[in-house]
Amino acid sequence: MRVEKKNIPAESPARKNRDLQSRGFSLIELLLVIAIILIIAAIAIPNLIQARISANEAAAASSIRTITTAAVIYSTTYQNGYPPTIVALGPPAGAQATCDNADLIDPILTTAPFQKSGYTYSYTGSSAVTVAGGCAAPGYQAYLVTAVPMIAGFTGNQSFCSDEPGVIHFNTTGALIASAGACVALPVLQ
Q1: Is 110 among the domain residues?
Q2: Would you call the peptide bond into 113 cis, given omega within 30 degrees of 0 as the criterion?
Q3: Does 12 fall in a domain?
Q4: What is d(CA 94, CA 1) in angstroms, rounded to the nearest whole number?
Q5: In sequence order, what are the residues at sequence separation of 6 or more whose Cβ sits closer than 8 angstroms to the Cβ of residue 132?
Q6: Residue 13 scores a pLDDT above 90
Q7: Of 164, 160, 156, nearest to 188 (Cα)?
Q8: Most buried of 31, 42, 60, 167 (most Cβ within 10 A)?
Q9: Are 131 and 137 a contacting pair, CB within 8 Å?
Q10: Residue 158: which domain range?
Q11: Which one, of 136, 149, 137, 144, lies nearest residue 162 by Cα?
Q12: Which residues are CB-neighbours of 176 under 8 A, at least 6 positions away?
C-alpha cells in the first residue's frame, strides 16, 4: 500500500503553524536563559571565593603547625638548636637525612619561593647556637615562622605565625608579622 503525502498549500494556516514550531528559540527566550545563568553565577562565585579562602587559611595554619613540629623534632634529633633555615627541614637530594636536610616536611614548603595554597611562608631564627658536629650551619635558640596570604582578600584574609613555644597566632588583617614579640601579642588560634 502506498501512502501519499498531502500537499498543503504554502499559504495555508497549517503550514504556517508548522513553520513557527520548527524555528527554535526566540531572542527573548535566549536572553532570559542568559540572565538566569548570570544571576546564578553572581550568587555562586562569591561563595566559591570564600570557600577557597577558608580552605587556604586552614591549610596555612596546618602548615605552620607542621613547620613548628618539625622544628622541635629537628632540635631534639640533631642537637643543633632549632633549624638554621626552613630549607634544612626539607628532604636531601637522593641521600640520607642529615641536619642540613632533615627530611621532616614537604618539599613544597622548603623550596623557594616557599609558597603553598595561596600563602607565602618565611622562617627566621635568632640567637645562634654552637654548630653541632656534622652540621654545616648553626641552629637557633628561637625562631619565628609566618604565613602571609599572597593576595590579601583573595587567597586569604588572615596571616599566621608561631615561635618556639609552638602556639599558633593569627592576624585578621593578613599583614606580615615582623617579630616574635608581635606574634605573641596576637590572638591565639584555637
Answers
A1: yes
A2: yes
A3: no
A4: 84
A5: 78, 79, 80, 99, 139
A6: no
A7: 160
A8: 60
A9: yes
A10: 27-184
A11: 144
A12: 146, 148, 159
Per the confidence metrics, is the pTM higher than 0.85?
A: no
Instruction: Kindly report, residue by residue over 21-75, the tens digit of the pLDDT.
Output: 556 888 899 999 999 999 998 888 888 889 999 999 999 999 999 999 999 999 9
Please indicate, yes or no, if residue 92 is contained in any of the structural domains. Answer: yes
Residue 120: inside a domain: yes
| Interacting residues of 143 by C-beta distance below 8 A, sequence separation 6+ | 71, 82, 83, 123, 124, 125, 126, 163, 164
Report which of 65, 45, 69, 59 is spatially closest to residue 158, judged by C-alpha positions: 59
Asked whether the beta carbons of 80 and 98 are under 8 A apart, the reply is no
pLDDT 10s digits, 118-139: 999 999 999 999 888 888 899 9
Helix (H) or strand (E) holding 115: strand 115-116
Q: With contact defined as beta carbons under 8 Å apart, do 123 and 104 qualify? A: no
Total number of residues shown for the chain: 190
Q: Kindly list the strands in the beta sheet with 140-149, ordered across the sheet, starting from the edge strand earlier in the chain.
A: 115-116, 119-128, 140-149, 159-163, 168-171
160 HSE (CA, 13 A, CB side): 25
Mean pLDDT over the full length of the chain:
88
| 16 vs 7: CA distance, rounded Å | 14
> What is the rounded end-to-end Cα distance, in angstroms, of the chain?
85
